[in-house]
Design goal:
This protein has about 400 residues and is α/β, with parallel strands linked by helices. The chain is built from 14 helices and 17 strands.
């Protein structure tokens, strides 16, 4: 063989070996996220949270597994905010792409469709954006959630309503509640949590409405609210629900001493509807001012500052909890000392760590039993933590007064 051709062949083989080695030194995670459809806003939050985690881990040298370092990479597909599509993509990621570790989709509905598939293939599945309790009553061994389950989202406003009643010389059982919830797994679990908490105090639920998935108007519910004059109005209808309850309570002059909703921060009610949103309470999974820290990002505030700068918008909890999912995998890979899915699954199950998002420790069902929810109140165009009291930035402003 001519010397030149031999040199070319050697160069080619060395290059191929380098590429192969590079691929071998990468751990691939898979994710189906909502880049289009009704969950696209939170789908982007989810993806951004995953991406910043991978970027940070890789710039710190990746993960050390059995004495060898690996970089992380994520293969993405758009689930189009559709459960059937999510299930199809989970199957594709595992069967066709060979992914052995799955990050969660956004929403309980999509996760419910995907969990049986990851369970069937025994693929560890860590999620941060599906909070339905139903997911953790099925006996799944490969599904883990870093967030609090949905039934805790709006329990705190019930507790605060009881506290306000006592402080003003009333029996908590005299508190009247109105509520409206979307007919989806997440919101129905939020409702169950409210019902359970209200029952503890003997409170009366006067309005219990179901909201359609594509809600564009809450006038029918709010007309009833105006008539019965409840002490507490609770709403869970994702971003649209949060926006509508803020805007329409002001437009229709519906005076309620306490109004609380899910998804306020992702709906950006403080940023876009600051005047109308004054005094509204918001259930949230996380806040940048919490005193959590980890070895990757430092404090919650340092994480948020980096996220804000990189993506150009305020850090939502959906992003923070997504980042935490990747950190759980990174921690588990290192503790397992292996990339064998079974060993990684067992390492995830024994997780006991603190991240900038929250403490994380899973029970036998895959729920994170180490964290608490956060309750904001919109005050002067900003989200301020008012519960739990040990983390509170300020005291609850009560009753809510409609802006003039």
């Amino acid at each position: 063989m001519p010397r030149f051709l031999a040199a070319c062949l050697i160069a080619f083989l060395l290059s191929s070996a380098a590429i192969a080695a590079k691929e071998e030194d990468t751990v691939v995670l898979g994710a189906a996220v909502s880049l289009t459809g009704k969950y696209s806003v939170n789908g982007k939050n989810t993806k951004d949270g995953y991406d910043i985690a991978v970027e940070r881990i890789n710039e710190m040298g990746g993960v050390k597994v059995g004495g060898k370092r690996f970089k992380l990479k994520i293969v993405y597909y758009d689930d189009e905010s559709t459960p059937a599509r999510g299930a199809q993509l989970a199957e594709r990621l595992i069967s066709q792409d060979g992914v052995k570790f799955l990050l969660g989709a956004y929403s309980s509905g999509l996760t419910k469709a995907m969990a049986p598939i990851t369970e069937k293939y025994k693929v560890p599945h860590v999620e941060g954006n599906a909070a339905a309790r139903e997911l953790f009553t099925q006996g799944y061994k490969y599904l883990f959630a870093v967030l609090s389950t949905a039934d805790y989202y709006l329990r705190d406003p019930v507790v605060l309503a009881a506290k306000m009643a006592k402080e003003h010389g009333r029996d908590p059982k005299s508190v009247k509640i109105a509520m409206a919830f979307e007919n989806d797994p997440f919101s129905l679990d939020v409702r169950e949590g409210v019902v359970e908490e209200a029952k503890k105090y003997g409170m009366k639920i006067l309005i219990d409405d179901k909201l359609p998935p594509e809600i564009n108007d809450m006038a029918a519910t709010l007309t009833k609210v105006k008539a019965v004059k409840p002490d507490l109005l609770l709403v869970s209808g994702h971003e649209k629900g949060a926006t509508l309850v803020v805007r329409q309570t002001v437009e229709m002059r519906v005076e309620v001493p306490m109004v609380a909703s899910t998804h306020c921060d992702s709906a950006k009610i403080a940023e876009n509807l600051a005047h109308a949103a004054e005094g509204v309470l918001c259930g949230s999974q996380w806040d940048r001012h919490l005193a959590y820290r980890d070895r990757w990002f430092g404090t919650a505030e340092q994480y948020a500052e980096r996220f804000d700068k990189e993506f150009g918008y305020p850090t939502p909890y959906q992003a923070a909890e997504s980042t935490a999912c990747v950190l759980v995998f990174a921690d588990a890979f290192e503790r397992a000392g292996s990339l064998d899915p079974e060993k990684v699954r067992d390492a995830i199950a024994s997780t006991d760590m603190t991240t900038m998002f929250a403490p994380i420790k899973f029970d036998s069902t895959g729920k994170n039993v180490a964290k608490q929810m956060v309750l904001y109140q919109v005050l002067n165009g900003a989200y301020k933590v008012v519960s739990p009291e040990k983390w509170a930035e300020t005291k609850l402003v009560w009753p809510r007064k409609l802006p003039q």
